[in-house]
Amino acid sequence: MQHIHTDPILLNPGPVNVSERVRRAMCAPDMCHREPEFSDLHEDVRRKLLNVYGLSPDEFSAVLISGSGTAAVESAVCGAVGRDERLLVMSNGVYGERMAEMARIHGIEYEAITSEWGALLDAAALDERLAAGGVAALALVHHETTTGVLNDVAALAQIASRHGVRTIVDAVSSFAGEFLDFTHLGFVTGTSNKCIHGIPGISFVILNRSALSSVAEYTPRSLYLDLRNYAEAADAGVPAFTPAIPALYVLNEALDELLEEGLAARIELYRKRSSLIRDAAQRSGYSLFCDPIRMGSSLTSIMLPPGLSYEALHDRLKADGFVIYAGQGGLRVRLFRIANMGSIAWGDLERLGALLEDVIHMRDDGQG
Known about the structure:
By secondary structure, this protein is α/β, with parallel strands linked by helices. Helices cover 40% and strands 17% of the residues. A hairpin with a 4-residue loop joins strand 6 (143-144) and strand 7 (149-150). Helix 2 packs parallel to helix 9 (245-261), helix 5 (123-131) packs parallel to helix 6 (153-162) and helix 10 (263-284) runs parallel beside helix 12.
């Protein structure tokens, strides 16, 4: 019998299903962003974001930006590279390519080191390029959800630091879902509506204060996305622009939920969920896009078997309450993606595994 859901189970990499506790925060009272109660809420969220990874407010600052994760990434790319400085972008997927496109649009001098989609970023190539000089900042993606690959940010940032290069990290799909070593990181971007389990509307940059101050001849390249303006306004206790207040209420509650659970527990939960999905898919006859040892714990890329289109698979799973995600770019016709972020019951993931098997058997029987 087909299982009917009033609320779909979102297995796309954001937005995610939220808990009832977090959902209720959307019904908080209306608030003016120029009043002291907003300042209190704003400071609570900034403090809690730093607490996720145990960061000191003397060394780091959490800067909130109303917009999707891309807004935070673009703000960091614009704000971490000085007027005459050069940016190096490392890319192995759509989101690394997007950082390079941001640099191009804003007139930032840049170059790129690209790796095959599904491969890890090349540490040796980075070391060789930085040794030649002329690069002020490095931009890269931690969890590249194009394929699910988790890049070794700590090792790459250490290389950059050794060459005196500041590092910008797109951690939009990994913040609160993977361990992050901030020792050599200058700018780390994230969003409310992925591994933190909030709703869309608020993104953020966790910046190392000394990294921001080291930017040579800081020149704003955007009015709305001026990172230094946001950082100074945040420290002054006032928002730079009108914020997404309902999303901020939700983020505050989601952070409470996360901190009570603990980062290590959240990461372990994701590991168990992704293992269940990967094991069930492989038992049913699907192949993973790349070795799980290279994948993060919040998303799995799975090859579409011959004779089964993404559309047929998507529609069959959606009829039973599950929303999956297509591949991107040239991978659209080759794979699909299943994320395991958000408030998801274990039993629903087990049911998903059975459905994947049913669908592949329907194809084998000529019913797909």
